[in-house]
Design a protein that fits this description.
8-stranded mixed sheet; single chain
């Protein structure tokens, strides 16, 4: 992949529709799901789009890792959880992650996934995406189809998040998103990302409503 090709697509902090900070409860629930099913309790990690810092905070229980964020004014950078870096350029120097996980900007999700799958040390990629993102047809479907249904990769698990998530972030007003989101996971096996068998469907209840 040529990262420069996508430079014009980088979201700005004011692009509220594309910059959505994950609530801490959601990130905690997503990492809780990964530990018994995919990564164990010790796993070098990288969050390429740290945003407000929810995922780096949740990932610290896995041991040492790295977090980067394109926006130098993002909360994760200001708090010291992340360093400034371009996700499309790959991991920062000294970072050899076994897990790449993040809530990517929607417009760059396919590019970020493609980049993560190319990281030599990576064994698991987990992204917070719209549930409809894995549907092969529709807007943008041709661009990401090979990342979900092959031949480049096949999704291993799609765990729907419940209840619907309220996202914050620059240029956004807090409010429950009207779309469903899922924790989408790719796992490398025998050197390949093409999971054998149908995608596994699951559900993550990140908040128990009263």
């Amino acid at each position: 992949m040529q990262p420069a090709l996508f430079a014009s697509l980088h979201p700005q902090a004011s692009a509220g529709s594309d910059v959505a900070y994950t609530p801490d409860e959601v990130a905690e629930a997503c990492v809780d799901y990964l530990i018994p099913n995919f990564v164990g309790v010790s796993c070098p990690w990288w969050d390429p789009c740290a945003g407000g810092g929810a995922f780096p905070r949740a990932l610290q229980r896995l041991g040492p890792g790295h977090a980067t964020e394109l926006d130098p004014h993002a909360e994760s950078v200001r708090s010291g959880l992340a360093t400034v870096g371009d996700a499309l350029q790959g991991p920062p120097p000294g970072c050899a992650p076994r897990l790449v996980t993040t809530n990517p900007p929607f417009s760059l999700a396919a590019q970020i996934l493609r980049m993560a799958l190319a990281v030599p040390t990576c064994e698991v990629v987990a992204l917070l995406l719209l549930q409809s993102w894995i549907v092969p047809d529709g807007q943008g479907g041709k661009f990401r189809r090979d990342l979900v249904w092959g031949p480049t990769a096949k999704i291993h698990t799609q765990a729907v998040l419940y209840p619907r998530i309220s996202f914050g972030g620059p240029g956004r007003e807090m409010g429950t998103d009207q779309r469903e989101y899922a924790w989408c996971i790719w796992a490398r096996s025998r050197g390949r990302w093409t999971f054998e068998g149908p995608a596994r469907l699951d559900r993550i209840v990140w908040r128990h409503e009263k």
